Predict the structure of VWFA domain-containing protein.
Amino acid sequence: RHGPGTLEIPMELVFVIDSSESVGPENFEIIKDFVTALVERVTVGRNATRIGLVLYSLEVRLEFDLNKYTTQQDVKRAIRKMQYMGEGTYTGTAIRKATQEGFLGARTGVRKVAIVLTDGQADKREAVKLDIVVREAHAANIEMYAIGIVNTSDPTQAEFVHELNLIASDPDREHMYLIDDFNTLPGAFTAALFCIISGAESYLMATIYS
C-alpha cells in the first residue's frame, strides 16, 4: 500500500519558504520541486503526516495549514499553484506565522517539524526579531530545520549563517544545512534530509556533503 521509503510515524510538518527577490522565479520553481519531492516521501493523511506551508517575502502568506489537505495529491497541487512573490525577506514574521497559524490544531503528542528554506538574511527593516520568534517556536515544541542557500562571495554570509544557526534546533549539525546551489536541492539532498527528519542515520548527510 505504501511506496518505498514512506514514513509511517505521523508528523505535523510545516514548510516556511522564502520567495524573495534574490531567489528569483526560476529558483522558486526548483524550491517547489524540492518541497514536492519531500512530500512524496511521506504518507499524507488525517492520521498520518499533515502538511502546512508558509510562503514569504515582505508579505507573509499562510498558503495552507495542517487541516487543509488530507491527500498527497492535494498538497502537491497546492504547491504547484504557489505564486512567486519577489521583494524582501521577512523570515522572523514568517516563522511566527508558522508557529501561530501553520501549526494551529496540531495533534497532541505528534512531532512538530518546521523546515525553513531561505537564501538570505532576514530583512533589516523587519520589526519582528528573529531570536524572539525562534524562542516562541521552540517553546511550542517545534523542531526547526534550517536550509540556507549560501553565496560564498557574499560579504554578509557570516551573518546569514549565524541566523540559520539561530533558527535551527540543537544539535545544529543535524538541523542546519548550507547549500551553494539551488539545483542540488531536489536530488540527493532531499533523500538525505528525509532520512534525518524521519530519524534515520544522520551520518548520511555528513557523507554526502563532507
In short: Residues 196 and 203 are 9 Å apart (CA to CA). The chain has eight helices and six strands. The first strand starts at residue 11 and ends at 18.
